[in-house]
Specification:
Among the domains are: 82 residues, Tetratricopeptide repeat domain (Serine Threonine Protein Phosphatase 5, Tetratricopeptide repeat), CATH 1.25.40.10; 90 residues, Serine Threonine Protein Phosphatase 5, Tetratricopeptide repeat. Helix content is 70%, strand content 2%. β1 and β2 form a beta hairpin. Strands 1-2 form a two-stranded antiparallel sheet. It is mostly helical. It contains 14 helices and 2 strands; from the N terminus they run ββαααααααααααααα.
Length: 288
């Protein structure tokens, strides 16, 4: 049997910041609630004004500084978050959450050494919290230190066995370490916990592809695209899978869609897709 072509693996990781306190929903005709960004924005603005007044009244209010810093995180205002969280730490050095939040800000600013120091300090304050272990895993992940990333995700999952993002990211770390069966198990667990993760369906589809399980790969790429029609890599993966199944016209269609939605940063992969499309078109022309 011909060896499977290795698909392009592109995985991302990001700080997971929850704004559940300020999530606003409205009911549709079925009674089902849906997210309302405008109401969320207004509630955030209102809360920021309240915190501004509280901090103006008491500049050493660590709780208010921490909360405002965490809101800045959600708005990608990372340096402002660092400023507030540093002030909070000057007042309260025993609150692990403040170090975690500042570590996340440093991580997003790509100041990884500072982020590691903050997450390590958070672990020292409260070793029963999965969050700093998870974020340490992300730091190692971003620096392609796969064994260290896996070890940190292991610690996070030992504390919180339902930490979906830790399974998803550990799966990528396993895959990049050549441990495909363990990666497959982690992706599957992550999807059991949250079946809306398009990127994880894509990543599991890549594992199936490389194992020669093309029907399973096709199912996962289909699901990834259903969940996120703009996920370029899923079109690429599905295109190569259609090729393996002898469905050349579908393969060309998916690769053309990949070229349409892929960002400019995918230039190398676009070139590969263009060459593959030309190759498949020649095969179609020669077929009876």
């Amino acid at each position: 049997m011909k060896k499977s072509t290795t698909l392009i693996f592109i995985a991302t990781t990001a700080a997971f910041f929850c704004l559940s306190l300020f999530s606003c929903k409205k009911s549709d005709e079925t009674g089902k609630e849906e997210f309302s960004p405008e109401k969320t924005r207004k509630k955030l603005e209102k809360r920021l004004k309240e915190l501004n007044k509280a901090i103006e009244k008491n500049p050493e209010d660590a709780a208010a500084l921490n909360e405002r810093g965490s809101l800045y995180l959600g708005q990608a205002r990372y340096q402002e978050a660092v400023n507030d969280l540093t002030r909070a730490i000057e007042t309260n050095t025993e609150m692990a959450e403040i170090f975690i939040n500042r570590g996340i800000a440093f991580k997003n600013l790509k100041q990884f050494d500072r982020a590691v120091l903050d997450f390590t300090q958070a672990v020292e304050i409260d070793n029963s919290n999965a969050e700093p272990h998870y974020h340490l895993g992300d730091i190692y992940f971003l620096n392609k230190l796969w064994p260290e990333a896996i070890d940190s995700y292991n610690k996070a999952l030992a504390i919180n066995p339902t930490y979906t993002a830790a399974y998803a990211n550990r799966g990528v770390a396993f895959k990049n370490s050549g441990r495909l069966d363990e990666a497959l198990a982690d992706y599957t667990k992550a999807l059991e916990l949250d079946p809306t993760m398009a990127l994880t369906f894509n990543n599991r589809g890549n594992i199936y592809f490389n194992k020669g399980l093309f029907k399973e790969a096709l199912s996962d790429f289909d699901k990834a695209i259903e969940l996120n029609p703009s996920l370029a890599m899923a079109y690429s993966g599905r295109g190569f899978t259609h090729e393996r199944l002898g469905e050349l016209e579908k393969a060309i269609s998916d690769l053309e869609k990949f070229l349409e939605v892929a960002p400019d940063s995918f230039a190398q992969y676009k070139t590969m897709a263009e060459k593959k499309i030309a190759e498949l078109q020649k095969k179609l022309e020669k077929s009876p």
